[in-house]
Amino acid sequence: MSDTDYGAILRYTLKRMAAVRSEIDKLDIEAAKLTQLFFATLNMLPDDEKQKFREIVQAFKETTTAKETSLKQVIMNILGQSYPRYQTVTEVRDRLRASGFDFSGYTSNELASISTTLRRFSSSEVETTNIEGVTAYRQSTKAARKAKLARIDNFGKDRFTDRFRSRM
């Protein structure tokens, strides 16, 4: 018989989780205040200087948003990166793990969440096939073309904002 008090461990863990959530809420408020200060101060600059800072903050927002992206969006990105190759649910899971995707907020297991998400895509978004009895998925040809056009439209923008970010 074990002397470990699992109930105490769980109570402590819940207490810490509540404390962390409280800190996150405080940090969210601080971030909102800093954003307001940034844009209020930005208006004080001459127009030619404003654009440089707008580009830097846009790149920062894109980076932050990428970390907060939904499972569906990340899966679509993975399928787009591997197009035209088909991916099984397990392969998608492995790529999600490798990218650092946080599954802690999901109540079902990773494979079930990914499988459900993949099945919810429309046929205009994702194509399926059967490989050795296992369903595999890839971004549809139409979605892949659309994503490629978007990349072409954005060509060079990342290098441009990176150049300004490195000056800060």
Question: What would you say this structure looks like, in words?
Answer:
The chain has 168 residues and is mostly helical. It folds into 2 domains: 6-68; 71-148, Winged helix-like DNA-binding domain superfamily/Winged helix DNA-binding domain (Arc Repressor Mutant, subunit A), CATH 1.10.10. The chain is 68% helix and 8% strand. The chain is built from 7 helices and 3 strands; from the N terminus they run αααβααββαα. The protein has helices at 6-42, 47-67, 71-82, 89-99, 110-120, 141-153, 157-166, and strands at residues 87-88, 126-131, 134-139. It has a 3-stranded antiparallel sheet. Helix 2 (47-67) crosses helix 7 and helix 4 crosses helix 5 (110-120). It is flat.
Strand order of the largest sheet: 1-3-2
CATH-derived architecture of the largest domain: Orthogonal Bundle
- Ends apart, CA distance between termini: 59 Å
Could you name the ranges where pLDDT drops below 50 across 5 or more consecutive residues? none
The CATH homology group name of the largest domain: Winged helix-like DNA-binding domain superfamily/Winged helix DNA-binding domain
How many separate helices? Answer: 7
- Please indicate the percent range of residues in DSSP E strands (runs of 2 or more): 5-15%
Name of the top-level CATH class of the largest domain:
Mainly Alpha
Categorize the overall geometry.
Answer: flat
**How helical, in percent, are the residues?**
55-70%
Order of helices and strands: HHHEHHEEHH
Q: Helices and strands: which structural class?
A: mainly alpha
Number of strands: 3
Main sheet makeup: 3 strands, antiparallel
Mean pLDDT: 82
